[in-house]
Amino acid sequence: MRTKKWQRRLFRVLGVLALILLLIFYFSTNTIDTTPYFETTYYKNTIQKMDSAIQDIKVSKGELLAGFAKINITPKIVKDQPDPSKGEFNAIKMAGNGSGQIAKRVHDSIFAKAIALNVEGQEVVFISADMVIIPELVVLKVAENLKGRIDRKQLFFGATHTHSSIGNCIPGFVGKSFGGEYQPEVVDWLSKKFTQLVLNALEDEKPSKFSNGYIKTPNLIRNRIIGETGRLNDKLNLISFVQNNGRKAVIGIFGAHATTIGTWNDAYSADYPGYFQRSLESDTIDLALFFAGTVGSHSNKGEGEKFDKAQYIGETLADSAKTLIRTMVYDSVISMTRITSELEIPELQAFYITDRLRVSPFISKKLMAEMGPIYLQGLKLNNFIWLAMPYELSGEYGIDLKNALELEGYTSALTSFNGQYLGYIVPQKYYYFDSYEPRLMGWYGPSMGDYLMELNFKLSNALTDKRL
After folding, report:
1. Burial state string for 61-71 with b = 16 or more CB within 10 A and e = fewer than 16
2. Which of 62, 140, 201, 291 could bridge across to 116 with cysteines, CB 3.0–4.6 Å?
3. pTM
4. Domain spans, the chain
5. Using CA atoms, how far apart are residues 177 and 100, in angstroms rounded to an integer?
6. Is pLDDT above 60 for 327?
7. How far is the C-alpha of 141 from the C-alpha of 12, rounded, in Å?
8. Are 417 and 424 in contact (CB under 8 A)?
9. Which of 116, 60, 123, 67 is nearest to 333 (CA)?
């Protein structure tokens, strides 16, 4: 009798535990939302906001003023009492690789750089840094520091996307996983650096000329989702500015991930974009910037191992840039059009469980850093179109838009990491593919790519007054 009572109690306990586990599973998971994005509230709200932004489009035409600035953001690692206001820290984890190293030394210094443009009083500033991303908290502080001088919507942010730079900048579980424990003093120090950088660029504005173009470099890039059969956005875009006093600045935009340097590395480095920038700056260019382009499906390709490979890719890319620069024709009169639109996004569908299930939005939001208003920005300079995006867009998506613009006579660049981060945006056909990009980093469901590409096309239509 006692045995039967014990068994009944055990079955009850097991039944209660099973029920609790089922309830936990039910409330902590969600099935993937396959609702067509154009039937959703977030889509309708975003289209309304974009239509309003297009009505408020900023257009100016006249003589170009351009200003250049550069600032060293290499942290100093000290054993004794650090002074974060001077960039001194006891330890900084390098961001980008989940199991990355604590930085112990400097292989090559890392920088933030900016170019300010002014056409008939309308100003914009391009800002890039040798970082995996420019964290939103840094961007928000910079915008607050610059209030009254220039607006956030006039700032176009980007990053080289090196994985051997400054971490400890993003709160939350995901931020900690990719960049180490959040340290607000790192954000405060970087914010002051970036603020001074922007002010220096604005103060340097002088009469200038502008040109742009691209050159294909298929030997340096590969499709890392499906390999050799995948489509490639293999264009290196260049934007060049020459002040009338002779000083030259160049922005290079390329879609290959800056991941030649892995978790074995314990030294700060700008990876191959650093070699690209230094190679140009050692030649006839006074300031070279690099923006990561459509890196959401593309990796690098080159000869050698470790830093030798980074050097090969960066300097080979720079050689291609020098060839293009020699053929550029410059204009001093610029037609500049600018749009910034706020977009809404679907609920999180992050953290893979099965092909049909993801962790629930409620729990996912607890693991991610909070985001403010999310901006998609567009700029037209004569025949050049630039879209600055808060995500890593697939190169395969980028090809379609760039080709459509080229048919209408425009060159274009699409850059990632514009002050916020929405993960990888890859074509819907890859959503259920068992690879890093869609499975771990595709956070917003199968329709997210097509949704954002419609917005990219709509913004481009407004900038060009065409129907692409």
Report:
1. eeebbbbbbbb
2. 201
3. 0.94
4. 1-31, 36-468
5. 9
6. yes
7. 56
8. no
9. 60
